[in-house]
Amino acid sequence: TSTVTRRKPGSYIPIVQDFMKSHYRTFTDVETPLYTAVSRRQEPLARLLLARGAHPGLPGPQGEIPLGAAFESADDLPLARLLLSHGADARALDPGLIDTPDTARALLRYGADPRGLDVGLLRDAPHELPWFLAQKPELTDEDPAALLSLDPASLDQLLTAGAPVTLADPVWHDPLLIIAIDSYPATIPILLDHGASPRTRSGRNPDDTALCVAAQHDRADTIRLLLARGAPIDTPCAWQQTALFNAAAGGHTDALLQLIQSGADVNTRAGSDHVLQRLIDDVTFFDPSNQLTMGEAEIRAARILTDHGSTFTSGGQRPCGYATAKRAVPELLAAVCR
Q1: Of 67, 143, 190, 215, which residue is most buried, by most CB within 10 angstroms?
Q2: What count of other Cβ atoms lies within 10 Å of the Cβ of residue 228?
Q3: Hey, how many other C-beta atoms are within 10 angstroms of the C-beta on 331?
Q4: pLDDT of 287-299, one tens digit each?
């Protein structure tokens, strides 16, 4: 049993200290000696403990086993073989901890369950995909990021072999398509071809559709593809903002132009907020000396909207008068005064 005391985050900040009963937090870990030796990569000590009768598979309080410790930070086959040679049960190991095909092969020979193999071990060895699939792993609980980080051809084969296109990450519950829009755009056509819905919604914000997320990330090509597959163009996103509203408010001009060219409403509103009015408000929120520094992208978006017929009336004023009354910089006035 080991006890460690650490200072709490923020306890160095006086105003935060006032709200704390204690500046320190105590953590207690309970491990078997063998688990401790293996997790710290102390092979001579592990060998000594096993020689003195340490149980090679005795689990700790949280169910952790020495064999699992050999793979926690990096594959350590010599330590694993040491444990297995003293009677550790390979079937007790979560094969998802294994990082390389070579290590997986070795552990399978000792009886590890191939159904638990994870696609993460293909990250640096995509050529091993045929061997991986031949082991008949269960593909229903994969790490979405590991799946999407593979080359498109490998992803296509894994989806064909049964990896569900509905997989979601365990934290935000974002489906594969949303994660792909965020970080792996090359995989989007493959996901759509395998049945991912262009109407897929975000896990972290269920009001956001795939099109909304694409607009937020300025993914013009993705927007074009989603629309071609049937994504509704003016469906409200979070805060009642459409994809075009999101693109404009973020100054994402590539996405904005694509949405306009595809027929999105240039006079869209979020509640009572007109999209062009919101841009003027956002830019003129800053002192005039900072408007160009803080709102250059929004000014470009305002110009695009104005060029395509976006307009509004507020308090009897149209965009030019509204921006003038807000002390807009000349660049914003030039964008909206046509």
Answers
A1: 215
A2: 11
A3: 16
A4: 999 999 999 999 9
